[in-house]
Design a protein that fits this description.
The chain is of the alpha/beta class and 389 residues long. The protein is built from 14 helices and 14 strands. It folds into two domains: 128 residues, Aspartate Aminotransferase, domain 1 (Alpha-Beta Complex); 250 residues, Aspartate Aminotransferase, domain 2 (3-Layer(aba) Sandwich), CATH 3.40.640. The strands form four sheets. A seven-stranded mixed beta sheet has the order 2-10-9-8-5-3-4, with helices on both faces. α1 packs antiparallel against α10, α5 packs parallel to α6 and α13 runs antiparallel to α14. The protein binds pyridoxal-5'-phosphate (PLP).
């Protein structure tokens, strides 16, 4: 891949130069005062980014999947009932994790691909029996569908269940207000809308989740997943005197410190609005090119990525053709429609220029694949949506 290939997949994403420079810093020890200060800042900044001033953050070396396991292994006991709101690939993964933990998993699926499960059906599932947790994927990266987290959190609370949100493709890009919406656990990975390299799992436990952890009957089945091991470490880094449990990914912490600094400086409200604007420009471009998207309605479409059906006569070779134009996009992921669509990430520090480069590359590749559209139609629609106010 040329060093000038623009990375527009739904994570990992293009990184700001200052973030990359943090990775190339001379190695610091894991107890070095500079690393300690950076780690402490990361935890404080995470509370601002998650909009969870009263939360307990956890930052552990591992991918987003580790964050999923950390989030539920510390609150669920074997035999507990879990309701999984299922919108696709990553909801399936959460159900599999919960089953491994010995939970009784009940799933509420969307009526069809591109839809979100009906709130009434979720409420019925919560009514059926006492439920320990309700889990939902905020943005399912396999379909580009965004779920109504605030409404689901309200249902969870009304039925005495903890609300766990997989925000791996949303935290830092989609509006998600953990405290205000009463979400008990939010998890993410460093490489998506947070704009850092892959390799760090982030989890924010709210007060009710911590109480559930304290009330847990069974031991957490894995030492590396155990909040009891990690809590003193996180508290230590915030206090400026960390004890040792397992060596942190030092340079990734330095990089995340820089990227979270950018998020906080931009301000979350401004960031949410920027993502919404860029996403609208992408949707306008797809429409102008005569392409359909997986989400059934625009209100369900995520702001962090697009999932777009190939038009008639075009197949998955489009992804390689776009790559030849200097832009890396992703193919499909949902098993039910994998070969029928492509995905473009639009999160993090992405600018209007990047959006136009990506749309232009897709247009040229579509034309080369025989798809008929007015040259520049997608770009014109995006430019109109991106006009400087
Ligand atoms: C990417 C992703 C994950 C998994 O993260 P990894 O870092 O690949 O382990 C989980 N959930 C969602 C919604 C994701 O987008």
């Amino acid at each position: 891949m040329s060093e000038r290939t623009l990375l527009m997949i739904p994570g990992p994403i293009e990184l700001e130069p200052e973030v990359l420079r943090a990775l190339a810093r001379p190695q610091l020890g894991h107890m070095d005062p500079e690393l300690t200060r950076a780690f402490g800042r990361v935890l404080g900044r995470a509370r601002e980014v998650f909009l969870a001033p009263g939360g307990q953050p956890l930052v552990v070396a591992g991918s987003g999947t580790l964050a999923m396991e950390l989030a539920v292994a510390n609150v669920v006991d074997p035999g507990d009932r879990a309701v999984v709101v299922n919108t696709g690939y990553f909801s399936d993964r959460m159900a599999a994790i919960l089953e491994r933990l010995g939970a009784e998993v009940d799933q509420v699926a969307a009526p069809r691909l591109g839809e979100v499960p009906d709130l009434g059906a979720v409420e019925q599932a919560l009514r059926r029996a006492e439920t320990k947790i309700l889990t939902v994927t905020h943005v399912d990266t396999s379909t580009g569908v965004r779920t109504p987290v605030a409404a689901l959190a309200g249902l969870a609370r009304a039925h005495g269940a903890l609300m766990v949100v997989d925000g791996v493709c949303s935290v830092g890009g989609e509006e998600l207000r953990q405290d205000a919406w009463g979400v008990d656990v939010v998890l993410t990975g460093s490489q998506k809308a947070l704009g850092a390299p892959p390799g760090l799992a982030l989890v924010m436990f709210g007060p009710r989740a911590l109480a559930a952890w304290r009330g847990k009957k069974a031991k957490v089945p894995s030492l590396y997943l155990d909040l009891a091991e990690w809590l003193p470490i996180m508290e230590g880094y915030e206090r400026g005197a960390p004890p040792y449990f397992a060596t942190p990914a030092v340079n990734l912490i330095l990089a995340l410190d820089v990227s979270l600094g950018h998020l906080v400086a931009e301000e979350m409200e401004v960031r949410f609005a920027r993502h919404a604007r860029l996403a609208a420009a992408f949707r306008a471009a797809w429409r102008a090119l005569g392409l359909g998207i997986l989400p059934a309605r625009d209100e369900l479409a995520a702001n962090t990525l697009s999932a777009v059906y190939y038009p008639e006569g075009v197949d998955a070779t489009l992804v390689g053709k776009v790559r030849a134009q200097g832009v890396a996009i992703a193919g499909g992921l949902h098993p039910a429609a994998k070969a029928k669509y492509f995905r473009v990430g639009h999160m993090g520090a992405m600018r209007a220029n990047d959006a136009l480069a990506a749309i232009g590359a897709v247009e040229r590749a579509l034309a080369a694949s025989g798809h008929r559209a007015e040259p520049g139609a997608g770009l014109a629609a995006a430019q109109a949506a991106l006009a400087i106010p």
